């Protein structure tokens, strides 16, 4: 029951924000020169003025901006995301088709970054200022400083072109469509490189945070008490230090779930994955307002959900937060 | 030491190298002995997804590369660039040029089994080419009706004379036929068939996963005997050019059409024996790089300033250092690949001459004060990296003669809106696409009276009665010799007045696997039906 009321309160607080964001994006896109018909003309390589006028009517662009915005919001209230001009189908369908690859990529790389960030952070903090720490920190810096498109391309060159271990792109093998477990393995093979590419940058951040957080907690009084009462080092680290050091990491996950959606435009393009990032990019270039607003809406929902889960995790990790809330 | 043996070895070595040289010089000779192999999957790079796939309602390479294998046109171009019948078997025009009769091939069926007839041609011409198809609506403006006295005859009736050579050179691009029975009810633009095309072509549409791939399979009932050879074509959506090059190298792609890779990757793969990198097969898709002048700026309305700008830019230097073998010096709006209309290089030209540029600007009264004469806003189109490089080169070249250039970059929609609708530019640069006949998409760049907002048309605030008259006369001139002469006049006139300067000629570059046979054998091969394409083992 407590969870439900918390969820309710969260949702109520998010709805006005969501509407403000949508109106903001709508108005911002009006500032960009050209509309979806100009973008279509650019794609077709020409067209006469009469056709353009007819197309504007077809896409509902002959109305005034406030009328268009009013129309959009009125549809949204009835949970209708409208019609996509580039895809020629309802926005909800378009987004639903693109959601699975995005979520798969996002969870895979977040889990990868979280797990290895945690392990390397702990190892680095245990050997602080000695060679394991220096090695891990240097690697982390390299991962963080390298642009992800370059990482992706180099990964393709090494693992797909030269070694030919992994497919260079796409979501699944089109040539021979697999079934059952083989299909799952096929998709997994296609996702290895994108996951690593997207995950490495976040890994670098996580391991820095984990290392700093571990070092801070290690110096607290209760750690000395734990050691004084004769616990062995493994127990001290796992039971007392790690649990407390995890809080900043969990906070970061909540914040970065949103970034991951946006950050994947580059990775999706390099690996030709049909995800939300590329869809958003295409919608901006093609001035497909409905699709873009739909993506903003879905992304915002995802961020809200993730942050809600993070709140629940806080309470689990540190009971003090739950009682205060 | 056995000298005779050495001699033999040397001779064998010489013979072998001669044989290799012969193959390099004439690779077709090596292929001629191979027998076509049936089967295989051909993977194609698809860089920019379009909103639909039906070439009867959208004329663009992004549609032809897919729709052109599934649907067919009335005529196409053969290896020598001459019209050859596809769905049409023969054609003739009346001497007044107002009636053109097409005889259609017998026994052709749509992929859904229904017969193809003249009714389909009449429906497509009147409802798609005339009303929806870009450039088609201009070409068929004076088409009044299409009569169908029998299923194999379509008679096109025009209000004004339609030159037969214009129609036949435009129809390969603007003459794809759609099935009447699938389109007669409802809004054509919203018809679901546009995303799952049904045609008469060598390949049948199978599946379209948006953002991922499109598949088409061999049409076993295709009308040409023994064709097609391939079992399947897969178009893979890859938006990142560098990633597409990596996929070519990994063997996941066989073909990247229309300069789909970066200039450096195309040059690199050109040295790799596994690939053929060439402009061959794209002669029908020539384009020129432009500088478009806005006459609403008083400086640019002075012809001396426009000529000075042209003289200030070292075009051969730019081509040698940035575009390499993929471009050549242009001489005007009609490129040299257009054998039927190219007037030769003896029209007014503006070779690099910095001193002359400075003298012209001084003469026009725009003296340099503190090194600067005036500032101009340059809008480059976002279509290709050559345009981006070219705009920077313009900026630096004009800086040297005292014209400050500020580059304002936009995406596609933004560029078209700002240049062709808002006229918010001083200089603009992009591509002019030449479509085999100047009347299709070239003369609109110069003819006055274009409606505001129509992209790639005369929006410069420039009007010339002589040029307008030449354009109008050429468009309805039925005699091919006279037409060619009129277009030569046209090039002379616009190269003198210079409302738009077109100093670079480019042809798209094809990157294709060396295993492909019968490829690049027509001037618009990327758009062609690929009925004879096959892959060697």
Describe the protein.
The complex is a heterodimer of chains A (325) and B (537). Chain A contains 13 helices and no strands. Chain A has helices at 2-31, 36-44, 49-58, 65-77, 91-126, 131-145, 148-162, 180-218, 221-228, 233-270, 276-285, 289-317, 319-324. The mean pLDDT of chain A is 85. In chain A, 79% of the residues lie in helices and 0% in strands. Chain A has 325 residues and is mainly α. In chain A, helix 5 runs antiparallel to helix 6 and helix 5 (91-126) packs parallel to helix 12 (289-317). Chain A starts with a helix and ends with a helix. In chain B, the strands form 6 sheets. In chain B, strands 13, 14, 15, 16, 17, 18 and 19 form a 7-stranded mixed sheet that branches. A 4-stranded mixed sheet of chain B has the order 1-10-9-8, covered by helices on one side. A 4-stranded antiparallel sheet of chain B has the order 4-5-7-6, covered by helices on one side. The longest helix of chain B is centred in the N-terminal third of the chain and has 23 residues, at 3-25. In chain B, a hairpin with a 5-residue loop joins strand 2 (75-77) and strand 3 (83-85). In chain B, 51% of the residues are buried. Chain B has 537 residues and is α+β, with helices and mostly antiparallel strands. Chain B is globular, with a radius of gyration of 25 Å.
Task: Give the averaged pLDDT of chain B, no decimals.
Answer: 90
Q: What percentage of the residues of chain A does DSSP assign to strands (E)?
A: under 5%
- SSE pattern of chain A: HHHHHHHHHHHHH
Let me know the largest β-sheet of chain A.
none
Structural class of chain B: alpha+beta
Secondary structure elements and pairings:
The complex is a heterodimer of chains A (325) and B (537).
Chain A: H1 2-31, H2 36-44, H3 49-58, H4 65-77, H5 91-126, H6 131-145, H7 148-162, H8 180-218, H9 221-228, H10 233-270, H11 276-285, H12 289-317, H13 319-324
Helix pairs in contact in A: 1-12, 5-6, 5-8, 5-10, 5-12, 6-8, 7-8, 8-10, 9-10, 10-11, 10-12, 11-12
Chain B: H1 3-25, H2 27-32, E1 41-46, H3 61-70, E2 75-77, E3 83-85, E4 88-93, E5 99-104, H4 118-129, H5 136-139, E6 143-147, E7 153-158, H6 164-174, H7 180-183, E8 203-209, E9 213-218, E10 232-237, H8 241-249, E11 255-256, H9 263-269, E12 275-278, E13 286-293, H10 298-301, H11 303-311, H12 315-323, E14 327-329, H13 354-363, E15 374-380, H14 385-400, E16 403-407, H15 412-421, E17 427-429, E18 431-433, H16 438-441, H17 465-476, H18 480-497, E19 500-507, E20 510-513, E21 516-517, E22 534-535
Parallel strand pairs in B: 1-10, 15-16, 15-17
Antiparallel strand pairs in B: 2-3, 4-5, 5-7, 6-7, 8-9, 9-10, 11-20, 12-20, 13-17, 13-18, 13-19, 14-19, 21-22
Helix pairs in contact in B: 11-13, 17-18
């Amino acid at each position: 029951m407590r969870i439900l009321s918390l969820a309710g309160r969260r949702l109520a607080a998010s709805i006005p924000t969501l509407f403000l964001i949508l109106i903001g994006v709508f108005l911002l896109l009006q500032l960009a020169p050209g509309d979806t018909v100009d973008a279509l003309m650019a794609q077709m390589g020409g067209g006469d003025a009469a056709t353009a006028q007819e197309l504007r009517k077809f896409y509902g662009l002959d109305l005034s901006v406030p009328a268009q915005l009013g129309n959009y919001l009125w549809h949204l209230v009835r949970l209708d995301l409208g019609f996509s001009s580039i895809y020629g189908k309802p926005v909800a369908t378009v987004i639903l088709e693109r959601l699975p690859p995005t979520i798969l990529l996002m969870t895979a790389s977040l889990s990868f970054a979280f797990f290895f960030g945690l392990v390397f952070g702990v190892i680095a903090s245990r050997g602080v200022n000695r060679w394991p720490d220096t090695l891990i920190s240097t690697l982390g810096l390299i991962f963080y400083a390298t642009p992800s498109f370059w990482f992706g391309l180099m990964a393709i060159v090494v693992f797909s072109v030269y070694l030919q271990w992994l497919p260079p792109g796409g979501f699944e093998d089109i040539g021979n469509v697999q079934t059952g477990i083989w299909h799952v393995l096929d998709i997994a093979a296609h996702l290895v490189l994108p996951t690593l590419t997207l995950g490495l940058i976040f890994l670098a951040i996580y391991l820095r945070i984990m290392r700093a957080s571990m070092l801070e907690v290690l110096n607290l009084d209760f750690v000395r008490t734990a050691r004084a009462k004769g616990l062995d080092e493994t127990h001290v680290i796992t039971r007392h230090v790690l649990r407390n050091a995890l809080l900043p990491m969990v906070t970061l996950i909540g914040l970065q779930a949103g970034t991951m959606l946006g950050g994947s435009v580059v990775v999706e393009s390099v690996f030709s994955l049909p995800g939300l990032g590329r869809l958003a990019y295409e919608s901006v270039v093609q001035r497909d307002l409905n699709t873009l607003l739909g993506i903003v809406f879905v992304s915002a929902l995802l961020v809200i959900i993730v942050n809600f889960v993070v709140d629940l995790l806080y309470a689990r990790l540190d009971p003090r937060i739950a009682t205060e809330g | 030491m056995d000298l005779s043996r050495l001699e033999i070895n040397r001779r064998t070595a010489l013979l072998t190298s001669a044989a290799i040289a012969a193959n390099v010089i004439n690779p077709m000779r090596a292929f001629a002995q191979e027998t076509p192999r049936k089967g295989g999957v051909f993977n194609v790079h698809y860089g920019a997804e379009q909103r639909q796939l039906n070439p009867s309602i959208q004329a663009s390479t992004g549609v032809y590369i897919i729709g052109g294998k599934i649907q067919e046109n009335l005529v196409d171009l053969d290896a020598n660039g001459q019209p050859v019948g596809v769905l049409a078997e023969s054609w003739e025009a009346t001497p007044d040029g107002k009636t053109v009769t097409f005889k259609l091939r017998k026994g052709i069926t749509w992929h859904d089994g229904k017969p193809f007839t003249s009714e389909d041609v009449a429906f497509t011409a009147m409802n798609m080419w005339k009303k929806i198809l870009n450039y088609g609506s201009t070409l068929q403006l004076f088409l009044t009706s299409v009569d169908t006295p029998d299923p194999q005859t379509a008679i096109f009736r025009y209000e004004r004379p339609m030159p037969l050579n214009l129609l036949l050179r435009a129809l390969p691009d603007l003459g794809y036929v759609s099935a009447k029975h699938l389109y007669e009810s409802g809004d054509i633009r919203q018809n679901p068939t546009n995303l799952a095309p049904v045609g008469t072509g060598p390949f049948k549409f199978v599946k379209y996963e948006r953002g991922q791939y499109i598949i088409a399979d061999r049409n076993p009932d295709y009308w040409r005997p023994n064709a097609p050879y391939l079992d399947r074509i897969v178009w893979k959506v890859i938006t990142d050019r560098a990633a597409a090059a990596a996929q070519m190298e990994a063997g996941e792609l066989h073909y990247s059409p229309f300069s789909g890779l970066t200039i450096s990757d195309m040059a690199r793969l050109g040295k790799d024996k596994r690939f053929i990198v060439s402009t061959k097969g794209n002669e029908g898709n020539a384009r020129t790089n432009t500088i478009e002048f806005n006459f609403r700026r008083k400086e640019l309305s002075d012809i001396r300033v426009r000529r000075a700008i042209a003289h200030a830019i070292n075009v051969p230097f730019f081509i040698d250092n940035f575009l390499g073998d993929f471009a050549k010096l242009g001489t005007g709006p009609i490129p040299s690949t257009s054998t039927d209309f190219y007037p030769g290089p003896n029209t007014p030209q503006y070779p690099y001459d910095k001193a002359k540029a400075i003298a012209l600007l001084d003469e026009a009264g725009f003296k340099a004060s503190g090194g600067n004469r005036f500032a101009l806003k340059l809008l480059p189109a976002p279509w290709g990296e050559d345009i981006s490089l070219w705009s920077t080169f313009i900026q630096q070249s004009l800086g040297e003669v005292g014209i400050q250039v500020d580059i304002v970059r936009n995406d596609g929609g933004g560029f078209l809106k700002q240049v062709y609708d808002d006229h918010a530019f001083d200089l603009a640069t992009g591509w002019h696409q030449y479509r085999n006949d100047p009347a299709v998409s070239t003369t609109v760049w110069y003819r006055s009276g274009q409606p505001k907002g129509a992209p790639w048309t005369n929006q410069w605030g420039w009007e010339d009665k002589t040029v307008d008259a030449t354009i109008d006369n050429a468009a309805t001139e039925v005699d091919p010799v006279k037409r060619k002469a009129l277009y030569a006049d046209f090039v002379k006139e616009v190269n003198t007045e210079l409302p738009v300067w077109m100093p670079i000629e480019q042809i798209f570059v094809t990157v294709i696997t060396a295993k492909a046979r019968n490829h690049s054998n027509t001037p618009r091969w990327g758009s062609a039906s690929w009925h004879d394409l096959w892959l060697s083992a």
